[in-house]
Amino acid sequence: MNRNVSIPRIGILGGGQLGRMFLQNALSYDARVCVLDPDPNAPCAKLASEFTCGSFNEFDTVLNFGRTVDVITVEIEHVNTEALEQLQKEGKQVFPQPHILRMIQDKGMQKEFYRNADLPSSDFKRVANNRELEALGDEWFPCFVKLCTSGYDGKGVTRISNRSQIHLAFDAPMVVEKLVSVQTEFAVIVSRHQDGATALFPAVDMEFHPEANLVEFLSSPSVLPTNVIEHANEIAMKLVQKLDFIGLLAIEFFLDKQGNILINEIAPRPHNSGHHTIEGNATSQFDQHFRSIAGWAPGDTHIIQAAVMLNLLGAPGFSGPVWYDGLAEASALPGVHIHLYGKQQTKPMRKMGHVTVTAATTIEAKEIARKVQSILTVKSR
Q: Higher-confidence residue: 256 or 152?
């Protein structure tokens, strides 16, 4: 077998924890994976076949990096799409495709795409600044405002309960979304491969941290009714087909109190809502992403055991060199799988790792996950 044909040389823009877990999976195939990141101590730095310290926002840096590999992918959306478009013209494979990344970088463009493609999402308006937000009618309050660009992991999103709170908005281009009466939030991950084959991961339920706006608990399998999950799967499939997407796409949904399913956010890469698949599913999201961009067939996505995932966030009041208090004690609990991300510095609410707990049922797994949460704390030395 020609190794260069069967296993392409892969380049990743971004060297964070998503790239690290992708690398850990790719090493099983003896794949060569090169990484570009501006932080010399990025989580990927010591695992990559080649690590380039540089900006994934600079045209020449991305162009020169991309020319050294066969396939380029991302673990963060905020990259230089102009360079990726040039690499695509030069014959490099770029997944997800640059035009999709460009759209996803702008939440306003995302919302317009959903509307034009007849995909369900909450009502929205685009505004350029706080003055335009002030000019909206009373029917738009309360609302959520989201920065059109540069927001991630709950940053760049804030709730405006009434006009007196408009000063809390970003005074920059924003998407204004009407408040949705949310019953619950859940996620579906779908892969679409180079030959058009698709595969869905079973839906997962999400509970969010009230302060950080990050997923606190994720449970698999979902307890939602079959008809809700089937409808969400149909929306996910329609979305990747409309995008002509290649790669792995994570979709976060709202189920509102009237029973409507609405797309909330999408991510064109492995995602926090799929970390449990490493232990909980026959194929992990990282393996599936590798398969989709390498030209391989999809792997089996079925659930092999119930799983609950919790994020390990930097504790309030601690900044500096990281220390995991209670790590050994937490690891002794049954079904506990600890994943630390190799970040040397902690700060409040920073994602430092995650824990997946597997058990016979999600109820049992969540009980153990709460014990882990009470034992394991991310502090600084």
A: 256
**Upstream peptide bond of 8 is cis (omega within 30 degrees of 0):** no
Residue 144, pLDDT score: 94
Does the pTM surpass 0.85? The reply is yes
Q: C-alpha angle 40/45/49, rounded to 5°?
A: 135
Contact 162, 139 (CB under 8 A): no
Q: What angle do CA 129, 130, 135 make, to 5 degrees?
A: 105
Give the C-alpha separation, 354 to 218, whole Å: 11
Residue 208's pLDDT is what? Answer: 81
Residue 73 has pLDDT above 80, yes or no: yes
The per-residue pLDDT of the chain, averaged, comes to 95
| SS3 track for 295-344 | CCCCCCCCECCEEEEEEEEECCCCCEEEEEECHHHHHCCCCEEEEECCCC
Beta-sheet strands, E only, within 33-142:
33-37, 50-53, 71-74, 93-94, 124-127
Distance of alpha carbon 191 from alpha carbon 130, whole angstroms? 38
Residue 111, CA distances (Å) to 142, 148, 157, 241, 319 in order: 19, 10, 15, 17, 36
The answer to whether 61 touches 38, Cβ cutoff 8 Å, is no
Q: Above 80 in pLDDT, residue 262?
A: yes
The DSSP secondary-structure symbol of 79 reads S
Q: What percentage of the chain's residues is helix, strand, coil (to nearest 5)?
A: 30, 30, 40
Domains of the chain: 3-94 (3.40.50.20), 123-178 (3.30.1490.20), 182-380 (3.30.470.20)
pLDDT tens digits, one per residue of 292-323:
999 999 999 999 999 999 999 999 999 999 99
Mention every residue, 6+ apart, whose C-beta is less than 8 A from residue 184: 205, 224, 254, 255
Q: How do 320-325 and 124-127 pair as beta strands? A: unpaired
At residue 4, the pLDDT reads 44
Q: Encoding tokens for residue 203? A: 């839906």
Residue closest to 177 by CA, chosen among 94, 77, 225, 110: 110
> Looking at the predicted structure, is the pLDDT value of residue 10 above 60?
yes
Task: Return the structure tokens found at 189.
Answer: 């991950």
Strands 198-200 and 261-267: unpaired
Average pLDDT on 114-137 reads: 96
